[in-house]
Amino acid sequence: MKYLVIDACARLNSRTRKLCQGYLNTLKGEIKIVKLYDLNIKPLTEKDLKYRDNLINKNDYSDPIFDLAKEFASYDEIIIASPYWDLSFPSILKVYFENISISGLTFKYDKDSVKGLAKAKKIIYISTSGGKIYGANLGFEYVKAIGNFFGIKETINFTVEELDIDPSKEKEILDLSIKKISELNE
Ligand SMILES: Cc1cc2nc3c(=O)[nH]c(=O)nc-3n(C[C@H](O)[C@H](O)[C@H](O)COP(=O)(O)O)c2cc1C
């Protein structure tokens, strides 16, 4: 199995990353970690779109701007580690999705429908939040929807809430959650 980890954690001591590591420790196979804050990815401009569309129209995917999409589409399982920010996730994760959402690589138009082209069967969405999440977890819901768009049928939510409510409980909550996530594949 080949696992691709998308790390959207901004902080050095990120609890989300620690939780994710608890999951990674249980895996056997090849693991590639992509730290989004170390990539030079930016929101798409009009110039970027023109450049990209021109290549897509020529069916030429040799440019390095397509490497992230090719990588995403080729892995067996996708693991996303992303804190809960402002009711969803850090904008760098959206920028990443903008950069990998490429017609001909992660999805294609098929007569009158859209077909996902990613190989993965599953996304594990790992997140932590400071407070309680009231209503829908929009970060998870978005990832589930775009994963489905790329052809990935299942997205599992592992979000740990209330890490900032009572500092005296933080370690206990995190340790218990790391134990739980390490049992996910048992
Ligand atoms: C920019 C920012 C936005 C946040 N927005 C929310 C929020 O909407 N709801 C919430 O419960 N916690 C929010 N938090 C708290 C984080 O979700 C929480 O501290 C989380 O555990 C951070 O993960 P980390 O330790 O991996 O960095 C926010 C934190 C930051 C820095």
Automatic annotation (TrEMBL):
<protein>
    <submittedName>
        <fullName>FMN-dependent NADH-azoreductase</fullName>
    </submittedName>
</protein>
<dbReference type="InterPro" id="IPR003680">
    <property type="entry name" value="Flavodoxin_fold"/>
</dbReference>
<dbReference type="Pfam" id="PF02525">
    <property type="entry name" value="Flavodoxin_2"/>
</dbReference>
<dbReference type="InterPro" id="IPR050104">
    <property type="entry name" value="FMN-dep_NADH:Q_OxRdtase_AzoR1"/>
</dbReference>
<dbReference type="InterPro" id="IPR029039">
    <property type="entry name" value="Flavoprotein-like_sf"/>
</dbReference>
<feature type="domain" description="Flavodoxin-like fold">
    <location>
        <begin position="1"/>
        <end position="182"/>
    </location>
</feature>
